[in-house]
Design goal:
By secondary structure, the protein is α/β, with parallel strands linked by helices. It has one domain: TIM Barrel, CATH 3.20.20. The protein has eleven helices and eight strands. The C terminus is likely disordered.
């Protein structure tokens, strides 16, 4: 099963996408399963994990609704208020398609917010519910997420977009390398190979992204790395076909088992897609 471990849908009229300013005008339009389906089919993708793009419960309900209508969607990573009554929110959102949660940490000014006592208490409820945490972070958060992993070892965590490295040429920097190596020492920590085209910007290629790919694969191993498109944000820097072709070029020297893990097996295992996902209600 080939899995795109990270993509988004949105319906603009819902009105809670506060980040959609003129800088993202090319993707400020409704983008829904009908738009992704031909791209995924052409790339040989069997299923996706759709990830929240707004910090609201309404966004999570919207995505869960799409999951029940769309065979391509195998899991939903939603949002809840982790500083609130997490148990009550999870009860209201109870759905077999909900596989994880994502606070938008990159947009929170307080780097250590996720280590607040009330948030840690909420995350323990998340772990007890069998859900995972997507960590939308930048390099300033690497130490914080290291502390979080030590604090709650029962919480599976995946780092979105390789923690958004800041490139100097094609070099992601020693601080990023050190931080990612440290995160990889926690056995519950995984990493998404996603978002790198947008982080690098114009001129991205297999060669320019090779240092990040090689470091992540060395640190985590293919059994803890999963490919994701970050579509449609990807369209600001490239396109679906080019990004998956680039990822396949980067991984062409890996053993077949590692390639299978990278493009599906790791995501299925991390999110429990093999044995807990129902068929879509169609």
């Amino acid at each position: 099963m080939a899995i795109d471990a990270h993509q988004h849908f949105w319906r603009i009229a819902r009105g809670d996408y506060s980040w959609m300013d003129d800088s993202v005008a090319p993707i400020r339009r409704d983008l829904l399963p009908v738009d992704l389906a031909p791209l995924a089919r052409a790339a040989g993708i069997d299923g996706t994990v759709v990830v929240q793009a707004a910090p609201t419960l309404e966004e999570t309900r919207f995505l869960l609704g799409l999951a029940h209508e769309t065979p391509l969607i195998r899991g939903v990573v939603g949002w809840i208020d982790l500083a609130g009554d997490v148990r009550a929110q999870l009860h209201r959102l109870s759905d077999p398609y909900l596989v994880g949660l994502r606070p938008m940490l990159q947009d929170i000014g307080e780097t250590g917010w996720i280590l607040r006592p009330e948030v840690l208490a909420g995350l323990r409820e998340v772990a007890a519910a069998g859900l995972r945490l997507d960590a939308l972070i930048t390099p300033r958060h690497l130490g914080t997420i290291d502390r979080l992993a030590a604090e709650i070892p029962a919480l599976p965590i995946v780092i979105d977009h390789c923690a958004k490295p800041v490139f100097t040429g094609s070099d992601p920097g020693d601080d990023w390398r050190t931080g990612m190596t440290r995160l990889a020492t926690h056995p519950q920590m995984f990493c998404k190979l996603s978002g790198l085209a947008n982080e690098f910007g114009p001129g991205w290629s297999a060669d320019t992204l090779r240092p990040v790919f090689d470091h992540v694969l060395t640190a985590f191993g293919a059994d803890r790395v999963m490919w994701g498109s970050d579509w449609p944000v990807l369209e600001l820097a490239g396109d679906y076909a080019r990004w998956i072709a680039t990822a396949r070029t980067l991984s062409r020297d890996l053993p077949p088992a590692d390639v299978q893990a990278l493009f599906g097996g790791t995501a299925a295992r991390f999110y429990g897609l093999d044995d807990t996902r129902p068929g879509a209600d169609t």
